[in-house]
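Structure ticket #2291
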Amino acid sequence: MDIPSALDLARAQFAFTVSAHIIFPAFTIGLASYLAVLEALWLATKDESYLKVFDYWKTIFAVVFGMGVVSGIVMSYQFGTNWSVFSDKTGPVLGPLMGYEVLSAFFLEAGFLGVMLFGRKRVGPGLHFFATVMVAVGTLFSAFWILSVNSWMQTPQGYAINDVGQFIPADWWAVIFNPSFPYRLVHMVLAAYLTTAFVVGGVGAWHLLKEPRDKGARIMFSMAMWMALLVAPLQIVAGDFHGLNTLEHQPAKIAAMEGHYETHAGAPLILFGIPDDEAEETRFTVSIPKLGSMILTHDWNGELQGLKAFPKEDRPPAEIIFWSFRVMVGLGFAMAALGLWSGWSRLRGRLFDSPWLLRAAVLLSPSGFAAVLAGWITTEVGRQPWTVHGLLRTAESHSPLDASAVGTSLVIFVLVYFAVFGAGTFYALRLMAQSPEAGISDDEGRPTRSAGLMPGPVLKALRGAGSAE
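Resolution: structure written out below.
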């Protein structure tokens, strides 16, 4: 058995930490916007049920936002510890973009979060709604800058290389709005909205199965199913445009995703198969003739390059991203199917009275997280063997560390993450298990009749944070 190298362990550590991190912003981006919509509906209708649902998810948002901040900070330190060469070479381009994310997004979120959590009675409903909107805008700004950074690594543009081999900005507009950025931003934001919709819908369905007349659960489920019905098909279309952009700029990634080793004119769409990078073939395929070319080139006889068209050292591992891509797409179509099912049930007046629809919503409640993780695996593994596509290899980007040092830190990360984020996730799930009609805490952070799930020290800490704001 081969002993993992420092590079392998550094890659495993970053993969683990980014996977643990991405699920939190994928939820908070959508949840912040959902909170803004709920408060707008309350202001417009004066229906207290919207306010109860707002307070219900507000507390969960605070918990998840905190876990996202902590996991994100840990991730950024790895650029200096495990990937110092990458940081040195790309710092002049990526460093300012990360700084803009902190200045324009995190400060906006953090500055208004305390007002959103604790300030309704102190600043009034109008200013409180403004604070909620600013938190939502901050999460979108965060997605904007982080996706710009990652997209530049996928499709670098607007740079020059100085005398010491560093990438330096030559055109900031070209750096930020690089060729893949618009497609990736839309795809990720829609994914975040769908992730939130299916969590909210699953929680609402769970409570409706127990109490069909729970008005808060009805609001949650109805709004979530509207999002599934309208946004899931948009995400499929956005994914198609993203795929066409990837075909133009990263054709080897597309070849690996599709499982094509040979170049084809009129390529089939391989639904299932077993890619073998060593043998350079996909075995036991189930495919539809010519449909692959039609989807990717919009021509039944369009030519698609196979992996054999690229040097072996420049190919991404098809054995991984072939499957991660199919998990992502399969879950996307499952979300769209549930949205259509809910629309049909709504037309028949049975949206809240269909037990199988409610059970399906509960079953698919974590599907957004799984789809986001599968999508990021497809994107990041598909960029290999490069950190900056076509310009800087992963093998040339890591720090000169011993494997034992990286391995020790990896073990510590795994243990701490499962303890800390496992406890946080467990607590968030316990909050979700409470009925939305019961409430969580009042505007001053004091426990209500359902707040027994919130430990006393947490309430004290939250009240202290509110006073500091």
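Closing remark: The radius of gyration is 23 Å.
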